[in-house]
User: Fold this.
Amino acid sequence: MFFGLVNNIECLGIKYMNNIAVFGDISANGIDGSSIWMQSVCNLFSSAGHDVYLILRDRPTDNTITNGIDIRVNIINPWDQSYTEIGSENTISPYELYSILNAIDKKIHFDNIIMRAPRFVKDMYRNIANLSYKKIISKMDIYFAALSVFEDSYELTILNNVHSSINRLVVQTEQMRDYAEQMFPELVERVIVLNPMVPKIIYQDSKAIKNKIKNKSVVYAGKLDVNYLIEDYIDNSLSISELGYKVKLIGSKFNTVKDDKGFKNRLESKIKEKGIQWTKVLGRNETINETSKSTFLISIRDKKFDTNNEISTKLLESISAGTLPIINKSRANMSIVGDNYPLFADSYSELYSIIGAFSLTTSNYKKILNIAQNKVEAYTFKYIYDKQLKFFYEGYNTNKLKNIKEVSRKVLIASHDNKFLSKVIKELEGISGLVIKFDNWSSTLKNDKKYSERMVEWADIIICEWAVGPAVFYSQNKKANQRLLIRLHRFEITTNQPSLINADNVDYFIVVSDYIKDFCIRNYKWESEKIKVLPQYADTLHFNREKIQGYEYNLGLLGCIPRLKRLDRSLDILEELRKTDDRYVLYIKSKMPWDVPFIWNKSEEREFYFSQLERIENSEWLKDAVIFDDYGNDVSVWFRKIGWLLSTSDTEGCHTAVAEAMSSGSKSVIFDWPGSDNVYKLNEIFSSSQQASKHILHNNYFEEASIALQKSYCFNNFDISKTINFYFEFIFSHQ
Assistant:
């Protein structure tokens, strides 16, 4: 019997904290967005329990940033270490960084190296032929603040060279992840979205709000930049004072422009002349605390930023501190505070009237603040780590399997096709205690018999993917001291192969649904206790992405061949919907039937698709409303525009696309293929296109709580971790 590993995987050391190096082509000697980012990354991973090593680029001369870093973070000062000589007085070179990383890696083993340093990566990559460099680069999670669509982009040129050699790519937005995955298919499932972030929410009680209303003040916090309209803020300080507000300024870094050499001196004179309270240097936490005492933070920027989809860190800091910001009415800002936020101002000419018109009462202030803080919760360290990073940094890295590192197992994987087992194999291959060999059959029934016989003599554990030829052979030839696991999908039950399996010699079967399990018990007399129901896994967190505008009216069909996928039903549903609401569109992502010879060679298949394509062309409801998207592995990107995934097939095993779609926040329309009601217990099951279309029309509101419940259901029932746990347990639970 199993030892309960599924409920306590830490007993094998599968879940563990990483050693993470952090480096930025960033000075830690001053406060700006980049140095705050570096500080935040260190604190975020340290607070989650990882061992973090920050390597400084510059000789430290100011401790404002480093003083704000968690005391548990190991700060490596290159001028105070014994790993390598530093040639410069002020900054390290790419070679020196490599030398430090390589030396520490040999000592403690880095699991990840987070790099915000394109030019350093570019320089190191020149030495990719060197195995030590290759090893260090393979651990890098490279952060790009921006990716341009232009081919001559500096960042894009670097990524074009290194994408297949690095560990992962880290970007700021979903749009950037989409772009990267489409440009570089090798990066699919290896791109992390890391949004701007704040340490925590400061929830202010009525007393604190009353105090900031009584002692009215406004604050500008950040770099003194012409694009952030700092001079407008200073020039309008007197009119703000006339409304009874104290005017404060936090920041010391001037971003000057070439054609305005007097910018810095002019601003310093104006600040002094107008009596603005100016605090030049504060750490991030101190800045947030000071902001929390103000009535409003003012962050009106040049309108050219309005088209930028990036969320302003300053906006997040202000709201997290409990202070309402006065901001531009941009799409990014509206995503946080809503369309009807009362403190939008697109220029300083509006500032006086905006502040004057605001109902400055405790109840009103608190109501608006609560709405905004509920949104900003998703940008806190804890939320971002749990929802966006934990999956990547607490995965099943098997280099640190504490209790099994001395255990040796010889594992044989026998199959004609391992495509549905690839991620499990990848995890198993990382375990130093395992030796894995493959018996790759050329078809479901053809093999190298002598090789298979040698593998019977060699293996401790035998895993057969698909219940066909390999499963039959090994069930009939395994030894008593060997363990055998067979996974049956669906198509096998249309053959005679499962009936030839010697079930007495099988330790466990995996099947994809209760329907298949019952079928096997009834038809093959397999013991119920030996059969584990595990639907084909879905990488649920990979699909959990922000939807694009208008997705609610987009239907999706992922795979329309062969004809048992019932393209005709999907078209029936679309026709019915468009008779009521012509906003509905059907997107089909699939190979075409003529691309697959064994389908296209059948006359009934050809006739079916000819008739459906003709129908699309001639129907007033379908013409221009059916879009065929390219077949490819960018499914997670595709799901971002899909509101309803259609599962219209006559038969399926468990139709994993449904679980993937639901994990992305899409709803599903599932027809009554055998076993559908047991696989997707959360969903209504349909028997007609009329029922399905009515359901869509009556349920076109995507309520946040119900979508969250749906995503949780998918994780608990379909996530890849469930399958990996089972395979690990099968291999290691018997000595």
Summary: The radius of gyration is 30 Å. The domain at 17-193 is CATH 3.40.50.2000 (Rossmann fold). The first helix runs from residue 33 to 47. Confidence is low (pLDDT under 50) at residues 1-15, 396-405.
